[in-house]
User: Fold these one by one.
Assistant:
Number 1:
Amino acid sequence: MFLKRIELQGFKSFADKTIINFDSEVVGIVGPNGCGKSNITDALRWALGEQSVKSLRGEKMSDVIFNGTDTRKPVNVAEVTLVLDNSKHYLHVDYEEVEITRRLHRNTGEGEYFINKTPCRLKDVKDLIMDTGLGKDSLSIISQGTVSNFVESKPEERRGLFEEAAGVSKYKKRKNESLGKLNRTQENLDRLEDILLELERQVNPLKRQAKKAALYLEKKKELETIEISVLVDEIETLTQKIDELKKEAFELESKKAIHETTIGVGEAKNLDLKKEMSQLDQEINKLQESFVSVMNDIQRLEASKTEIDEKRKYALQTATNEDKLKEIKAMLEEVTYEYEDRQKRVSDLKVSLASKQEKDRLLLEELNKQRDSFREESAYLNRLKNRSSVLENLVSSPFNHQQGVQTIMNAKDSFMGILGVVSLVLKPHDSYEQAISSAIAGAMYHIVCEDEMSARHAITYLKKNQSGRATFLPLSVCRERVLNKEHQIICENMNGYLGVASEFVDCDPIYQILNSYLLGNVLVCDTLANANELAKALRYKYKIVTMDGETVNRDGSMSGGRSKSQSSPMTLKKELKDVRDQIEKRQFTVNELDTKVASLNSKRETISSEIVQLQIDLATLTPIVDAKKSKMDSLRVQYEELAPKGEVIEISHEDTLISQLSDAYKKRDEITSQIKIKRERRMKAGTESERIDMQIRQIRRETNVLNTQQKDVEVEMAKAEANLENALNRLSTHYEMTYEFARTQRIDQDTAEAKKRVLELRNEIAALGNINLEAPSQYEEVSSRYEFLTHQKEDLVNAKNKILEAIDEMDEIMIKQFKESFDAINAQLNDEFRKLFGGGRASLKLVDPDDILNTGIDIDVQPPGKNIQNLTLLSGGEKSLVAICVLFSILRSSVMPLCVFDEVEAALDTANVERFAKYISHFKDGSQFIVVTHRPGTMEQCDALYGVTMKQKGVSSLLRVQLNEALDYIDEKGGQ
Ligand code: ATP
Ligand code: MG
């Protein structure tokens, strides 16, 4: 038996557990109306997975659970188990016996399925019974009142029955699954194609962008390499140019200064000269007046003299010897006077000349002395000026020799938290510079920063750029340092103690902690000796510095002394101030000396012209003296010839006219000489003044030129400095490089060409427009995704083709199997029809023979002697018979392990019931029949009969009955 057993519990009217064992091939189920027979067929279909509530005669699924009666409570669970014999492997599983169970819980509405007590899905149950003829569409389980459905349904609806009979359901299901798969594959494919299309849209622009980005990077790299070198060249050239311009500016400035001094000196000299000139003019005027008056005197005296001389001439020609002698004597007296007078004047001139010469010698000596001092002082002044410019440079860039410090401070604004350098943020009080410098010592060039992170950042920068080293002092690590109270008392009682170093420093409040950290425990003393005493008293617990910068260290070691280059940034300013003070003083001295030298020179000039005049006078007088002498001598001879022998000539010196005349001439000569000297002097002064005026004008013109040059230089310098700053900025902001590092990256190139190339590249880069730097990686990503998806698409297309192939194969099998099965059934049908109808004919027809897979199925029947056009015109019994004919044809042509009929023969007449029942009972081909019936004809043909009763009202129960007992049921109910 295929169906060995049904177990029901809580299902519809079967409230109690009921087991029906089937041991005969044809089993009848009998019982009065409403006793629960049909519930058994419902149970069968339900256990096999029936989902249609309507076909189970309910409104909702829970209607299948026993609902209770007047005397019994409803139950909560319905359960039906079918036990199937699988020794013939109708079911495609290895088990010999298969148990199918379905259970439903009222409360949760939860349904459960089990195959061989193992929970499973509905689908598993359906798969299990597929193609066994137990399916939904088969005729193997015909519910009450549905037998005529077959005839009444549409050709397309009938098709399922034949598919079930042909055993193609599993292929159909598989095909459906494959179609589902195909559908999903196609959907995936469509989606994939959409994505691919979208990617295609992206990939080309991205490819272009990536190419552009690569080109951009290439050009940028080239630009960078070239531009860095160009910038380095530019910076080098500009620095050199700025140096040269500075030098030029300095030279121009010095030239201007010299010019100004020269003009100043010239103007002062001119002023002196003008004064002298007017003085001389006055003196000359006076002298000329005197000259006129003396000339008048001379004229008058000469007239008297001429008168006397006339008289004397006459007397000499006419007079006696005695008178002649008298006259000669008078003449002799005159000439003697004149001779002596001139003689005296010569000797006076000589004295005066000697004195002037002596004076000149002294002046020269003094001049040489002053000149030497001038030279010495000037040289010293120059040295001071040099030192001053060196110091100025140091003050303006104090970290020239600390490359690391310089680098960081130059780029200070690009760093976070870099504040300054110790030597600049702490400002010592006046005259404490040396002391504080020594106290700070090694920390002088430490860079003050906010915290350790900012220091790390800056150090990384120095390392990357190879720009030297620097020490950093984060404010966050600075702690306050103070002098212990006890030590303070000791200090205050010591000689020469001035205080704690930190007290002598001014600083911004934020650096107060730094000040205390570096200097809070350093003491300041006046002298080294006192410092030693203090150190001893404090047991060398503190570092002590003196005002001169000597140090007594905590280990007792001492340092001091002085070197040329010991200046620290702190002492620089003071030193510069000192040097500038000195320059001022020395300049004054030098100017004074210069004036002195100039005045000595002018004095010497005056004296030398006087000397020359004296020499001229002397030279003029000498022949006059000689002439007077010879005249005197000749007169003396004449006198002695005339005078008696032995008479001594006595010369009177009291000739007033002659002496007056001599005095007048002397005066005239003196005046003339004076005038000459003064005129010469006046002339010289005039020329000199004019020369100086001209020189001043010339210098002023030159100064104007210098001014223009200076302005040009300033403009040039500003331009060069701006360019330099630009270049440095570009290096640091664009390439994050210091100049020093950039120099190491320099390549050999022609600067002019490189500059041209830089411009070209910049234009080319600008022409590229917007650049998507992500493009290469995006392109890479998109194109690899595209490739991947293309592969996937190929895979999907392959899968699709395989599915299509499989579907084709299945279609072929289905067509073949369907057709074979259909033909076989058709071949049987006419026979079966003729048997049941006692004549006539019947056949099946494919509505569309060209579409075996979908075609509906028509039935063409002609009962004996009738001409039926339409199946609906058949009677109820005829309809049942046609369905039964088809069922029997199916049974003949293929194996159906189980048939369950619920009153299918109800509408047949007795003769036909008999035929029907006989057919079943004689159909020994391994099929099992379970028939619910009221018809004795059927009952008689059954191998075994079960009676369903409701001993307890509303609750079905079952028992095996004999034929007569079964017939009794009918009688009781008064049936046929
Ligand atoms: P007939 O010979 O008239 O076809 P039958 O023996 O086939 O009658 P069934 O249709 O099997 O009768 O049984 C119907 C009976 O089952 C009804 O009386 C109904 O009350 C009962 N029944 C149906 N569902 C339930 C349920 N959930 N709980 C209790 N009883 C139920
Ligand atoms: Mg019934």
Note: Residues 37-38, 144, 902 surround magnesium ion (ligand 2) (CB under 6 Å).
Number 2:
Amino acid sequence: MAKEVVLSGIRPTGFLHLGNYFGAMRNYVRMQDEYDCYFFVANWHSLTTHPDTRELGVAVNRVVAENIACGLDPDKVALYVQSDVPEIAELYLYLNMLSYKGELEKTTTFKEKVRLSPDNVNAGLLTYPVLQAADILIHRAVKVPVGKDQEQNMEMARNFAQRFNHRYGETFPMPYGFNYGGELVKILSLDGNGKMSKSENQLATLYLADEDEAIRKKIMKAKTDSGPTEPNAVKVDYIENLFTLMKIVSTSDVVKKFEDDFNGCSIRYGDMKKQLAEDMVNFIKPIREKAADLQNNKELLDRIKKQGADKARASANETIKLVRKAVLG
Ligand code: TRP
């Protein structure tokens, strides 16, 4: 039986961080054996905010390199750059005929962007969900590993697919958000303010490109308090977060020791952070080094992008042929 198609897109903005790793990339890596996987860098989507051209190119390469460093295998999945697959733009055009100004203006992300940059309300921004639907439908994907913040975009993708099927005949299966084992591991910012972020509070975010010293410094500065005052206390979120990080990068013995110290009210956060910092350095260092090597090897990187684009275009081509026939007769 054919494997189900999984697809997800990553915007090439900012540096990838631990939150991305545990919220997304680690799951992609798990999916690559089980599904027919398409992962791509959404560089067309980035154009809505008019980024510097050179920086965009560098960011695209970094995202490709970091995803491979995290374990994505370009021989197993199609890892490609959106702009290398022109069939997506063609499908976007057809879907634009089925998407309405009113519904697009109502989406939360659009309203948010209008509020944040009222001087750049371009049509690309308005039709962002249409392009995202084209990304998904071009491979007739059914499983889309994304966070909760993408639920509305997913719902719109299903609406467009349904409208297309209704008007032109059954062409697309319905795509749904999907993640392994229910809840994703959420990584909070080290200052206790919200999630780790690509662009905000960089001193409280651990990036996959961080040098050893930066990792140590950030962890030693992580927010703590004077410690629990009663045995087996409930942990506040910024303390829980340190334990979450420790569970991810340290051995179970180490985690147990600090859990016991916490429950017995004898925990020394300074010691815990020192241990966490070293284990984190050992976790991030090989990823950082592999990604850096790859970014410096333009030839290999180009070959990987070409391999991904070829795979993606083979699949996109099959879909666009069906679509043309359905729409144009
Ligand atoms: N909008 C997504 C984000 O902000 C990125 C994205 C673009 C995407 N196209 C997609 C995600 C298709 C899943 C499927 O993260």
Note: The longest helix spans residues 298-328.
